[in-house]
Amino acid sequence: xxxxxxxxxxxxxxxxxxxxxxxxxxxxxxxxxxxxxxxxxxxxxxxxxxxxxxxxxxxxxxxxxxxxxxxxxxxxxxxxxxxxxxxxxxxxxxxxxxxxxxxxxxxxxxxxxxxxxxxxxxxxxxxxxxxxxxxxxxxxxxxxxxxxx
Length: 149
Fold this sequence. Notes:
This protein has helices at 32-45, 50-57, 61-74, 94-106, 112-121, 128-137; strands at residues 4-8, 13-17, 24-27. It is mostly helical. The radius of gyration is 28 Å and the shape is rod-shaped. Strands 1-2-3 form a three-stranded antiparallel beta sheet, with no helix packed on it. It has two domains: 4-79, no CATH class; 94-137.
């Protein structure tokens, strides 16, 4: 299976050359998913070294194996870029904020670690830093006073 990439400058399309001159398949070089798929397909089906196929498509061998694993795991959707931002829902809910504020008003001597221990016993899985941020955003932090000598 001898294939090569052939770039057509006029329409900015790359053609994958098949076994004969008349057998060509167009891919859009700007479509990252298409390019990655073709690279994985070619490296998997041809006898060329993976490193040579990667160079042809402009990727490193490490990037190839990363995308290959994503493709095997998730199919074609695994080749799409991961969405930016948090990968899981926030642990800081409105109920948690209300509970932290309630604890601060009812027991003002508690520090963020003690509040964190209480909410952890109630089933909230947050860090003391999250508790501190909630208190700061609502103006409920304790001010440190300087000791007079």
